[in-house]
Amino acid sequence: MTDVIIMILTSIGTLFILIAAIGVLRMPDFFLRLSVTIKAATLGLGFIMGGTALFFLEFSVTAKVTAIIFFLLITAPVSGHMIGRTAYFTGMKLWKGTVLDELKGKYDRKTHELTSDGDHAQEGNDPVDEL
Amino acid sequence: MTDNLLILPIFTHLLTAILLIFAWGHINTQRVLSLCGHIIALALSFHLFSKTWKAGILTMQAGGWKAPFGITFVSDTLSATFVVLTAIAGLAVGIFSTVGVSKARMQYGYFVIAHFLLMGLNGAFLTGDIFNLYVWFEIVIISSFVLMTLGGKKPQMEGAIKYVAMNMLASAVFLTAIAILYGLTGTLNMADLSLKVAQIEKKELVSVTSLLFFVGFGIKSAVFPLYFWLPSSYHTPPSATAALFGGLLTKMGVYAMLRTFTLIFVPDAFTQKVLIAVAIMTMFTGAMGALNKTSIRRMFSYLIICHIGYLIGGLGLHTRVALTGVIFYLIHDIIVKTNLFLATGVIHKIRGSTDIRRLGGLYAEYPKLSLVMAIVFFSLVGIPPLSGFWPKIGLFQAALDEKSYFLLGGFILASFFTLYIVAKMWSEVFWKDLPKRAEETNEFTELPFIKQVWLIVPVVGLALVSLYIGLGAENIMVISNRIALNMIDTGYYLDAVLNK
Amino acid sequence: MLNNYLLYVILPTLSIAAILVFVRFLKGPFTLDRVVGLDFLINIGIGIIAIYSVVTDHSAFLDVAMILALIAFLGTVALSYYLEQRGKQ
Amino acid sequence: MEYLLIFLIGLLYSSGIYLMLRKSMVKLLLGLLLLGNGANILIFLMGDIAKGQPPIISKDASIFTQMYADPVPQSLILTAIVISFGLQAFAIILLKRVYQMTRSDNLDTLNTQEVDI
Amino acid sequence: MQSTILKTATNYLLPLLLLFSVFILMRGHYESGGGFVGGLVASIAFVLHSFAYGLEKTKILLKYPPMSFIPIGLLLSFSAGVLPMFFGQAYMTGVWSKDPLPVIGLVGSALFFDIGVFIVVIGVTLTILFTISESIDQQTN
Amino acid sequence: MILAVLSGFIAAFLLTFLGKIFKGRLAVLLGLLPLSVFNYFLYFFPDISAGKTFSFSYKWIPSLGINLDFHLDGLSMLFVMLITGIGSLVYFYAAAYLQGHKYLDRFYAYLSLFMGSMLGLVLADNILLIFIFWELTSISSFFLIGFNNDQAESRKSALTALAVTGCGGFFLLAAFVLMGSATGTYSIESMLSVATALKASPEYGLILTFLFLGAFTKSAQFPFHFWLPGAMKAPTPISAYLHSATMVKAGIYLLARFTPLLGQHFYWNTTLMAVGGFTMLYAAFHSILRKDMKSILAYSTISALGILVFLLGIGTQHALVAAATFILVHALYKAGLFLVTGIVDHETGTRDIDKLGGLRRWFPFVALAGFLAALSNAGLPLTFGFIGKDLIYETTLHLGDTEKYLLTGIAVLSNIFLLYAGFSVGIRPFVGPIPESLVKRPHHSTLSPLLWLPAVLLGVLGVVFGLAPFIPDNLLIRHAADAIFNGTTALPLKIWHGFNLTLLLSAATLMSGVGLFFAFRPRALSSATQYWMAKVSPQGISEGIGQSTRSFATSYTRLFQNGYLRSYILTITVFLVGLIGYRFFTTVDLRVNTSSFTEIRFFEFVVFAITVAAIITTVFTKSRLTAIVSVSIIGYSICLIFVYYGAPDLAMTQFTIDTLTVVLFVLVLYRLPHFLNMSNRKMKLRDGLVAISFGSLISLITLQALISPANKEISRFYADNAYLLAKGKNVVNVILVDFRGADTMVEIMVLTIAALGVYSLLKLNVKPTDKD
Amino acid sequence: MTKQFLLNLMLTFVWVALTGDLSFVNFWFGFALGFFILYIKEKNDGDVKYFVRVPKILGFLLFFIYEMIKANLQVAYDLVTPKFFMQPGIVKYPLSAQNEFEITMLSNIISLTPGTLILDVSADKKVLYIHVMYLKDKEKFIRRTKEKIENRLLEILR
Ligand code: NA
Ligand code: NA
C-alpha cells in the first residue's frame, strides 16, 4: 500500500518537474521561464520528498525531508526574486505578448533604488549576456 | 616502536606559524618568535639526526595504526639529513629575513608562510606515505605561491602565474600517478608499496606509472624539458624567498625522486636511459641558459637547473657510488645554493641591482665580504677541496664504471660551464670597477651596524658550513655512504617500517 | 516493484527533465537563463538523489540532498548579485 | 559504467590540457579545474566500485553486513578536493591581481620579464 | 544590494544554517558530514548575510576578524593530535572518553580535531570571500 | 712535513686577516716563509741522495680513499727545490717590485696559497690529492693573473687561463677516477705494482686521453697554449714563478710522475712526441716574431715545455735524464730572464725591445743577470744550458734511423729560435745606445738589491752548475731521473763529452742563433697578416668557438624559454605523452576484460552525457560566464556520479567546493573582458591533437590498471575496524580524522595558507619605496 | 523579546528533530545551542507576536496547496499545447502588510504560487511588483490576491 502511495507521490512530483523543464525550454521570455521553474521545481521536489519520507518512515529521515522542504520553501522564492530583479535591471526584454509593465522606469539607474511612485525616466539598457 | 621525536621538527614550525598568526602585524614579536622557532627546529633536527644515526631508522605510526594502515613517519638517515639541512638553511634565511625582508611583507605574513614552507619540507622528508607526501608537497607549493607573490610587482606576478600553472600541472600528474599506483597495489605506505610493487606480475604498467611519477617530480625538480617555471620565476621574489626556493624547493622534487626510484621502483634499463638522457640535457640546458645572463639571479636560476642534472644523472646510474655522490652533492647544493641567493641579496642591498652591467668594485670595497662570497661561489664550482668537489668524484667514477661516457661528458660540460660562468661573474661583479651611474645608493651602508651584521651573519655561517662540508668531507662522506647503502638495500627500511 | 518503477520510470523521467533543462542551458540566450538553468538542474539533482536513496535504501544520500538544497541558494544569489552589480556600471 | 568514467577521465584530462594551452588566463584556470576533476574521478575509479553502497556502517551494526564502496579513494579525493580548492582559490585571486596590473587576460603579454635572456 | 526580502529571509536562514553546520559537524563520525562541510555551511551563512546586509554589518556580527578564527582552529586540531603524545602514544592517536556523553555520544580527540577543522574552514572561507568583497568595493568606490 | 706543505695555506689564511702588517717594508719578512721551507727540505738531501724516499700519511677522507699521503723522492725533490728556491727569490723580489702596492697583502696571500698548492701537488702520493692541489694551483693562478683586476685585459686573461686549465682539470679528474677504479687504489706507490695490468686494461686509451688533456692544458701544449701569453698580464714576479718555473711545469711533473705507470707504450710515446715536438717548434717560431719581452718569454716558455713533453715522449733513459736536467736548466735561466724583464719594465715603463737599449749603463747588475741567463739559454759551453742542450741532442741522436733526423732537425731549429728569443730579452735591451725616448722612471733613486740580486743569483747558479754539473746531478737530477725512469739511470752529467756530432750540433745552433740575432729583427706585421694569424691561431679558433657557443646558448635558451606559458605546457605535455606513450605502447599488451564492470543505466548515462556536453561547452564557449557555469555543471554532475557510486561525503564536499569556486570566479572575474579568440585554426588543431593524445593515454592506462585489480587489504582493515577501534561508523570520516588524520591536518593548513595568501595578495600593495 | 524566545524555541525543535534524539538533555543542548547562535546573531527586529494559530494555518496551507496544484495544471496545459494563451505582465501591487517579516512571507507565498513571481519590493515598502503570467484583469488580480492571500496571511501573523 505504501509502495503505491510512494509511486503516486513521486510520479506527481516528477511530472511537475518534467512540466517545468518543458516550460523552461519552451517559454518565450526570461521572466516566464523563471516563473515556471521556481515553483514547479519546489512543488515537484516536495512530492518526491514526501514519497521518500514515506518510504523510510524513520524519524530522522522525516526530519531531514522536512528540513529540505522547509529550506526550499524559503529559498526558492527569494532566489526567484533576486534573479528576476537582476534580469529587469540588466534590461531583459519582455515577451511581445506582455500586456502590462508597471515596473518600467521605477528603478534608479545609479543606486538601484526602487520607488513606489514616480518615474526615473530612463531607457533600459541592452540585455547583458556576458560577464 | 613509535618515536614521537621525529614529528617535532614539523610541529615546531607549525606551532611557530600558529603563534605568528596570533601575532599578526606585530613585526618585532614575529621576528623574535620566528628566530626562536628556527633555533628550536635546528636543535631538534640535530637531535633527531643523532638519534637516527644511532638507531638506524626511527618510525612513528600516526594514530597508533601500524603500517601500512596508518600514516607512517619515518626518519632514516636520508630524511634526517634533509631535515637538518632544511633547519640550517631555514635558520640562515630566517636570520637574513629579519632585516632583508621589507616591513610590509612582514606585516602580511611573510614569517608565517616561511614557517609553513619549512614545515611542509620537513613533512615531505619525514613521511613514509606516498599520499601524505603529496599533501606535504601541496603545503610547500601553496606556501611558495604565497611567498612568490607576497607584495609582488608586475614581473613577480607574471612569473607567479607561470610558476603556479606549471606547479599545479605537476601536482595533477603526481596525483594521477598516485591514483594508478593505488589501483595497482591497493596501498599507500611507501614501504608496503615497495613490497607490493615487487609482487606485481605486470611490470610494464609499473614502469609506465613510475614514469608518471618521474614527470611529476621532474617538473618540480626542474629537469629538461620540464623546467620552464624556474627561469620564469625564481629571479623575481625577494632574496630571502629566493634563497629558500633556490636552496630547498627543487631539492624536494629530487628528494621525492630519490625516494620513489630507490624504494618503490627500482629503475629498469629504459628508465635509467631516460634519466641519464634527461640529466645530460638538463645540465646542457642549464649551462646554456646561464652562460649569457646579465642578471646574476637569472644566472643562478639556470645554474640550479644545470646542477639538478648531476643528481638525476647519478640517480640514473643507480649504483652505490653514484648515489653516494648524489647525496653528497645534495647536501652541498642545499647549503651553497641557499647561500648563493643570500649573498646575492647582500649584493643587491649594496648596489641596488643584480645586473652585472651595473655591478662592480665589490672586491675593492668589501674585501672580507668578497672573500666569504668567493668561498660560496667557488664551492659551487667545486674547486677542491671546497664542498662541491667531493661528490663529483663519485659521480665521475660511477659514470665511468657504467661506461656512460655521454653522462660523463655532461658532468664535465656542466662543471666547466659552471666554472666559467662563476669565474666570469666574479670578474665582473667583484673585480671590475663599479660602472658610473647617475645616482649611487648603497642601502647597505645606510643600515645600522647591527642590521648589517644580521645580513652578513647567515652568509658567513653558511659559508662556514660549506667549508666544513668541504674540509670535513669524511663525515659527510660517511653519511652519504650510509644513505646510499640504504637506498640500494631497502630491506632495512622495510623492516623498520613494517615489522615493528 | 517500487524499486523497478523508480529505477525505470521515475529516474529516467527526471533525467529527461534534466536534459531538457540542460538544453535550455546550452541555448541561453542570456547568462541569466543559464543561471536559472543551473538552479533548476540542482533541484532536479536533489530529486534524483532522493529517489536514489529510496532505490538503494540508504538514507545517507539524503544528507547530500540537504546540502544541495542549502547551498545551491548561495550560488544563485551570488550570481544574480554580481550580474546586478555589473549592471550598475 | 566504468567505460563511461574512463572516457570521462580522458575527456577531462584532454580538455583540461587543451584549455591550459590557450592564451587566456581564465581558460588556464578552468583547465586546471578540469584536470583536477579528472584526477579525482581517476582516484575514485581505482577503488573497489560498489554502486549505491556508501561506506557507512548501518546504525544497528558494528561492522559491515553488506557490500560497501572502497572508502580509501573517497577520503583521498576529499583531501585532494579541499587542497585543490585552496590552490584554486589562490590562483583565481592571483589571476585577478595580474589582470589588475596588466589589464589583459592574454597570457602572451605576461613576459615582460622574460625578454631579457 | 538592498533587498528587503533577502534580508528578512537571511534573518531566518542564518541561524538555521549555523545550526545545521553544527549538526553536520557533530554527526560526521557516524554519518555523512564532518568538520569540513560543516564549516563550509557555517561560512555560507555569513556570506549570505554579507550579501543581504553588506559586509560591514557582517563584520560587526562576527565581532572578530575571520582570520583570527584560523589559528584557534589550527591550535585545536593540533592539540587534539598532540594530546595523545603526552600519554606516550603516537601523534593523532584517538583518545576517547570512557562513557558516552549525552547528545554527542562518545567524546574523543577526533571530535576536537573535527571542530578545529570546522573553525579553520570558517576562518579560511570568510577571509577569502570577505577580502575579495572588500577589494571589489574599493574598486567600485 | 704536513706543516711544510700547509704552511702556504696557513700563511695565506693569516695574511687575509693580518695582511695590513705586511703591506709596508715588512713584506720582505714574508720571504722567510719559502726560505724556511727550502731549508726544511734541505735536510732531506743526504737521504734522497742516498736513494731513499720518504712517505707521510695523514687521515683525511678515508671513505673516498683520499688521505694526505705525501711521498718525497727525487722527482718531488727537484720540484720542491724549484718551488721553494725560486719561490724565495720571487718573494724577495716582489717585496721590492710591488713595494707600497695597495694590495700587497693579497698578493702574498695568493702567492703563498699557490706555493702551498704547488708543494702539495709535487709531494702528494694520492692522485686525488694531486688533483686537489692541481686545481688549487689553477685557482690561485686565476687570482694572481687577475691581480690587477681593474684592467679588463687582466680579467679576461685570468678567465681564459682558468677556463683552459680548469677544463683540462675536469678531464684530469676523470682520468684519475678511471685509474682509481682500474687499479683499486689512488696511491701512486701502490699503482706502480700493477702498472703492467693498467697498461693492458681496456681503459688505458681513455685514461691517456683524459690525462693528456689535463697535462697539456696546464703545460700549455699546442693547441691549448694560448692562455699562457695572456697570463703574462700578471705582475712579473708571478710570471717568473708560475708561468715559467713552476705551475706550467705541473703538467710536465704529472707526465713525468706517470711515466713509470703509463709510459713506455706506443700511444703514450707517439702522442707526447708529436704534441711536444710540434709545440716546441711552433712556439719557438712564434717567439721570434714578438717584440714585447714578456711575450717573447711566454712563447719561449711554451716551446721549452714542448721540449720537455717531447723528451718525456721519447722516453728513453737519455731522454728522461735530459728532461730532468732541462727542467732545472730552464727554470734557472727563464726565471732569471723574467726577473730581468720585470726590472726593465719596472724602471723604464716599457717592454718593447725596439724602444729599449743600452740599459747596461743604468743597471749593470741587471745586465749581468740578463747576459748570464741568455747565455745559459743559448747553451754556451760552460753554462748549465749547454749541458741541457747537449743532452737533448744526445737523446734525439740515439733514436732509431727513421725518427732521428726529423726529430733532431726539429730540436735544432727550435733551439735556434729559442736562442734568438733569449738574446732578445737578455742581451738586446742592454747593448747599444740608449734610445732618446727612453726615460728612467723617477720613483727610485737606486735600484733595490732585492730586485737585481735574485736575478744575478739565478744567472750565477747557471754558471756554477755548468761548471760543476756533478752538483745538481748528484743532488737532484739523477734521483729525479731515477724516479721518472723507475729504475737507475747511469748517465752522469758532464761538462765535456768530447768532440762528437752533438757538439757539432750545439755549435751549429749557437752560430745560427747568433747569426739570426744580428740579421733579423721582428717587424710590425701587416694588419692583414695579423688578422689572418689571429683567426687561424688556436686562440682565435677557440674564441670563435666561444662566440658561437654564446650565440648558440642565447638562441637555444630562447627556443625553450620563450616567455609563452602555453608553449611550456605544450612541451611538458608532449614530453609526457611521448615518453609514457612510447613506454606504454611498446611494452603493455592491451587487454580488455569487462566482466567485472558494472552495467550502464539510462539515468547514469544521462549524467554522463550532460557532463560531456558541459565539458565541450566549457572548452568551446566564447562567453566567460558560460564557461564558468559549465564548469560548475561538470562539478555537479560529478557530484551525482559520486552519489551513484556510494560516496555521499564526496558528493557533499564536491558540491560545496564547486559552488564556492563559482562564487569566487564570479566575484573575481565579472569585470574581465570577453574571451578573445586568439588562436588560429592550425594552433588549435595542434593543441587539440596533443590534448587528445594526452587524455587518451591516461584513459588507456586507467583501463589497464583497472583490469589488474589489487588486493585491498587496507580498505578492509579500515572498514572492519572503523567502529570497533576508531568508534565511528562513517568510514570515510573515520579515515579522515583518525586513520589518516595526518593528511587532514595538513589539508587545513593548505587552506590556511591559501587564505593568508589571498589576504596578502589583495591587501598588500608594496610601495616602490619598500625595499628588500 | 518574545520573538527571540520563539526563535530560540524553534531552533531547539529543529535541533531535536534533526538529531532525532527526543531526550530531555538533547532538548536543553539544542536550546543552549540555539541561544548561543542567536547571541552571536545579536540583532534586534521589531517585535512581532508569535501567536500560533493552528487552525488558520492549516486552512491556509490547504488553500495554498490547492492553489498551487491548480495553477500548475494551468501552466502545464498551456505548455503542452502548441499555442500560448498566456498574457504576462508586471503589476504594481499595493501592500497592506507593513513589516519586513509580513512582506517577506507574503511575497514568498505569492512567488510559490504558479503564475506569479515577485520581482521586487519598493524601497518604501508600500508596493510589490509582481510578474503575472495570466493577467486578464489587473484590478481583479490585485483584489483576489488581497482577499485570498494577503488578508488571510496577516490574520495568521498578527
Ligand atoms: Na580531508
Ligand atoms: Na565526513
UniProtKB/TrEMBL annotation, chain A:
Signal peptide: none annotated. Keywords: Membrane, Transmembrane, Transmembrane helix. Pfam families: PhaG_MnhG_YufB. The chain crosses the membrane at residues 6-25, 37-57, 63-83. The keyword Transmembrane helix applies. NCBIfam families: CPA3_mnhG_phaG, PRK12674.1-2. PANTHER family: ANTIPORTER SUBUNIT MNHG2-RELATED. This is Monovalent cation/H(+) antiporter subunit G. It comes from Ravibacter arvi.
UniProtKB/TrEMBL annotation, chain B:
It is a multi-pass membrane protein. InterPro entries: CPA3_Na-H_Antiporter_D, NADH_UbQ_OxRdtase, ND/Mrp_TM. Keywords: Cell membrane, Membrane, Transmembrane, Transmembrane helix. The chain crosses the membrane at residues 6-25, 32-49, 69-96, 108-127, 133-151, 163-185, 205-230, 242-262, 274-292, 299-321, 369-390, 405-423, 453-471. Its main location: membrane. It comes from the Bacteria. Residues 129-418 form the NADH:quinone oxidoreductase/Mrp antiporter transmembrane domain. It is found in: Cell membrane; Membrane. The keyword ATP-binding does not apply. Belongs to the CPA3 antiporters (TC 2.A.63) subunit D family. This is Na+/H+ antiporter subunit D. It comes from Ravibacter arvi.
UniProtKB/TrEMBL annotation, chain D:
It comes from the Bacteria. It is found in: Cell membrane. Coiled coil: none annotated. The chain crosses the membrane at residues 6-21, 28-46, 76-95. Its main location: membrane. It is a multi-pass membrane protein. The keyword Transmembrane helix applies. It holds the Pfam family Oxidored_q2. Keywords: Cell membrane, Membrane, Transmembrane, Transmembrane helix. The keyword Signal does not apply. Belongs to the CPA3 antiporters (TC 2.A.63) subunit C family. NCBIfam families: PRK09094.1 (NF006573), PRK12659.1 (NF009302). This is Na+/H+ antiporter subunit C. It comes from Ravibacter arvi.
UniProtKB/TrEMBL annotation, chain G:
Coiled coil: none annotated. InterPro entries: Cation_antiport_E (IPR002758). Belongs to the CPA3 antiporters (TC 2.A.63) subunit E family. The chain crosses the membrane at residues 12-38, 50-69. Keywords: Cell membrane, Membrane, Transmembrane, Transmembrane helix. Pfam families: MNHE. Its main location: membrane. It is a multi-pass membrane protein. This is Na+/H+ antiporter subunit E. It comes from Ravibacter arvi. It is found in: Cell membrane.
